TrEMBL record:
Keyword Membrane annotated: yes
Keywords of this entry: Membrane, Receptor, Transmembrane, Transmembrane helix
Residues spanning the membrane: 12-31, 51-72, 84-103, 109-129, 136-160
Record-given protein name: Benzodiazepine receptor tspo
Family annotation (InterPro entries): TspO/MBR-related_sf (IPR038330), TspO_MBR (IPR004307)
A Pfam family hit: TspO_MBR
GO biological process, one term: tetrapyrrole metabolic process
Length: 162
């Protein structure tokens, strides 16, 4: 059993790391041209209000942080931890890239292609994380559902705004 102080630090670091990914993505929504560009886009009827996105992402990043902690807490010597942490990191980078492609480059089609790759990476993350901690894998499942919805939104927005 690890020292409680170390567990607390790992837990906090896991949450901060995942929330930092979210803040990095959020940065791209605040670029000078992003709000006007996004407002001018034709959006599908099933597009949720903007505030829904923010709250869902906050919840998902918190769940990812808890998942990351559960994997990390098994120790780097655990048979599957390093692989799970590696793919976890890859999918977090891909997460930021969606924000960059969609809001930074203002390219919904490229964002759609990227979110398909993100979904595949997230699926692989869940599989590898499941080999370390089943609860950690379950905590990532809502992210996969949301990323699937984001893929639908990205493709539809791309179609509506050629």
């Amino acid at each position: 059993m690890t020292n409680p102080i170390i567990r607390t630090i790992r837990f906090g670091a896991s949450l901060v790391a995942c929330l930092a990914v979210g803040l990095t993505g959020l940065y791209f929504t605040s670029l000078p041209t992003a709000p006007d560009w996004f407002a001018a886009l034709e959006k599908p009827v099933f597009m949720p209000p903007t505030w829904v996105f923010y709250w869902i992402w906050v919840i998902l990043y918190l769940l990812m942080g808890i998942s990351l902690y559960l994997v990390w807490s098994k120790g780097l010597g655990h048979r599957h931890v390093q692989g799970a942490l590696s793919i976890f990191g890859v999918q977090m980078v891909l997460n930021v890239l969606w924000w960059f492609f969609f809001f930074g480059l203002q390219d919904p089609y490229l964002a759609f292609i990227e979110v398909i790759i993100l979904g595949a990476a997230l699926f692989m993350t869940i599989i590898l994380v499941d080999g370390v901690s089943r609860p950690a894998a379950f905590l990532l499942a809502p992210s996969l559902l949301w990323v699937s919805f984001v893929a639908l939104l990205s493709s539809t927005i791309s179609y509506l705004n050629p």
